[in-house]
Write a sequence for this structure.
């Protein structure tokens, strides 16, 4: 193994580890925050607005920061993106004022929506990771990124019991128990930023035609690929905001469960999907990325829709575990496929545009979910999960329809000349 390979491997693990630290709060806020805000007096509609704000801020900022990352280097944006989440967790810790909560959501995000912080680091981090794991290694590394992100969500979800333990074991009051927990997450954000510092970035000469800008947005080499991905990812974003972002509140309304009960189930839903790490590259290598993503995301959608028929919260949670396994198999395959079929110099740009589409969808749908969850009838309460699942299925179908005849270079052995083609020249 060459010195470059050793450094690349080390840097890839630093990127994966720092991302995991930074993502720990996502699992916690996904489970706890909707129920916590409900307990301190906010309506379901307001909770939907708080959740939507993080997607809105991320969506607005993604492309500008991707332009900067493609032009000026990725590492600095990953560093400051990770650190910026600290301000959000400090606000969550010390305020119940709605305007401050909205600001915290806009900066650091709620649950799966990462806010401004994610807009700063996500496109730069994705492109930098692809640089450190080129070619045939890429899908496996992206599977590890999904697995480690899952571990972070698992630990974060399990930490839903921390406020309860602080109240019962240390005898702090209700508000202090959440303040201390958010302070822990602020510390994790600082650590994640510091972990980026040793990473070496291979700076490439870039010209005015590389990446995206207001002048050449429609003239990217990979513009058609990116446009198609944006449709598919936009549907995923809408489905996520509708069916997943307020899922703990759905459990609360449907079955009367609280965050302490739900935390271990949500953690189990994440930890179970860790077995996708060895499965993802093998599945993509045997069936091809397009078929693999279509199959696994379709199954996840059907399982999500079936949750509304579960007679108990335990059965619904078991269906959620199965759903997470399949969606966590599909997601790294699609991410790796995108990175493999666009121009290398446009990877941060491609990531930003497609995540912008995701953000547009996820900005609208939590408000709709909050509206449905404010009702008391079964059709109203079940609507976010059932409609969200249907939209996930539509996304899977659109992905397969758009890309069934295009394969990334490392899957050439699977190609049949009359059925598949490789990406256009200039891509790898």
């Amino acid at each position: 193994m060459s010195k470059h390979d050793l450094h690349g491997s080390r840097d890839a693990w630093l990127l994966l580890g720092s991302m995991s630290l930074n993502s720990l709060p996502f699992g916690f806020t996904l489970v706890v925050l909707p129920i916590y805000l409900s307990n301190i007096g906010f309506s379901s509609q307001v909770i939907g607005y708080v959740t939507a704000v993080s997607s809105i801020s991320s969506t607005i900022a993604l492309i500008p920061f991707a332009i900067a990352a493609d032009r000026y280097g990725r590492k600095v944006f990953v560093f400051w993106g990770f650190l910026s989440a600290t301000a959000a967790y400090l606000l969550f810790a010390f305020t119940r004022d709605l305007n401050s909560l909205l600001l915290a959501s806009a900066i650091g995000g709620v649950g799966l929506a990462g806010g401004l912080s994610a807009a700063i680091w996500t496109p730069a981090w994705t492109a930098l990771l692809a640089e450190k794991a080129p070619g045939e290694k890429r899908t496996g590394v992206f599977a590890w990124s999904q697995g480690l992100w899952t571990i972070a969500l698992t630990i974060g979800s399990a930490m839903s019991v921390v406020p309860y333990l602080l109240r019962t074991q240390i005898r702090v009051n209700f508000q202090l128990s959440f303040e201390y927990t958010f302070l822990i997450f602020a510390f994790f954000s600082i650590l994640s930023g510091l972990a980026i510092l040793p990473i070496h970035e291979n700076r490439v000469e870039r010209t005015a035609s590389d990446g995206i800008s207001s002048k050449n947005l429609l003239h990217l080499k990979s513009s058609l690929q990116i446009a198609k991905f944006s449709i598919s990812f936009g549907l995923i974003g809408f489905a996520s905001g509708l069916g997943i972002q307020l899922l703990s509140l759905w459990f609360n309304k449907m079955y009367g469960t609280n965050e302490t009960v739900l935390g271990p189930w949500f953690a189990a839903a994440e930890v179970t999907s860790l077995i996708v790490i060895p499965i993802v590259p093998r599945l993509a290598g045997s069936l091809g990325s397009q078929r693999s993503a279509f199959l696994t995301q379709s199954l996840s959608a059907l399982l999500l829709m079936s949750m509304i028929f579960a007679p108990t919260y335990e059965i619904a949670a078991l269906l959620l575990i199965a759903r997470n396994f399949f969606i966590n198999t599909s997601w790294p395959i699609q991410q790796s496929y995108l990175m493999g079929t666009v121009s290398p110099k446009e990877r941060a740009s491609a990531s930003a545009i497609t995540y912008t589409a995701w953000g547009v969808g996820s900005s609208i749908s939590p408000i709709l979910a909050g509206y449905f969850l404010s009702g008391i009838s079964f059709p109203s309460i079940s609507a976010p999960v059932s409609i969200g699942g249907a939209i996930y299925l539509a996304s899977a179908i659109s992905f397969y329809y758009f890309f069934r005849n295009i394969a990334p270079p490392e899957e050439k052995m699977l190609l049949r000349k009359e059925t598949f083609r490789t990406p256009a020249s200039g891509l790898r």
Summary: Residues 3-198+220-414 form a domain with the Growth Hormone; Chain: A; fold (CATH 1.20.1250.20).
